[in-house]
Amino acid sequence: QGSLGDPIINISFGSGTNPGSSLTAATTNYQYVSADCPTDGFYTVRTNTNACFGTTWHSFTSDHTGDPNGYCMLVNASFQPSIFYLDTVRNLCSNTTYEFAAWIMNLNVPSACSGNPIQPNITFSIESANGTILQIYNTGNIPPLPAATWKQYGFFFTVPFNVSDIVIRILNNSQGGCGNDLALDDI
């Protein structure tokens, strides 16, 4: 109830010219490529994407906020379900409720993969530093849409007493292959 206030953490992947820099090794198990169209198990950081994989991906010209110089993370999911983003947030207030949210876009057009692309299915896990799960949220399948569309997914969680650091895990639950490609922004 009431205002959420300003974001405590806003992971926007920065801004600049293409390509953006790779994420730190502790942030993802996927391999970075500077190319516009990463293949299965790879990611890139870009301001846009255009005509990937014979136009089976949406082309878009800006990140979630509409900033033409703003970066987002483009993920072509690995063949096996896996963690594609991992980060630690420090110095939160214990016994306080926070919102965790991220903007996601299914990159596949509906006609991709003979009209049946694998749909991203993402789990957000918030954990204490010792691995205790505080909250889990699953997006369910994220269907392909006719236009490049960002959608926010999120939930509320409470940091327990005597906890100030949390671990954020973003997991891909679907198999890789034809489809299961996404853009991630503004965590």
General description of the model:
This protein is an all-beta fold. It is built from one helix and ten strands; from the N terminus they run βββββαβββββ. It has one helix spanning 112-115, and strands at 31-32, 42-46, 72-76, 82-89, 96-106, 121-128, 133-141, 151-159, 166-172, 181-185. It has a six-stranded mixed sheet, with no helix packed on it. A four-stranded antiparallel sheet has the order 4-9-6-7, with no helix packed on it. A hairpin with a 4-residue loop joins strand 6 (121-128) and strand 7. The longest helix is centred in the middle third of the chain and has 4 residues, at 112-115. The radius of gyration is 16 Å and the shape is globular. The model has no long low-confidence stretch (mean pLDDT 93).
Helix content: under 10%
Reported for the largest beta sheet, the result is: 6 strands, mixed
Residue windows where pLDDT falls under 50 for at least 5 positions: none
Largest beta sheet: what is the strand line-up? 1-2-3-10-5-8
State the total count of DSSP E strands. Answer: 10
Quote the average pLDDT.
93
Distance between the termini: 22 Å
Strand percentage lies at: 35-45%
In one word, what is the shape?
globular
Please give the radius of gyration in angstroms: 16 Å
| SSE series | EEEEEHEEEEE
Q: How many DSSP H or I helices? A: 1
Q: Given the helix and strand composition, which structural class is it?
A: mainly beta
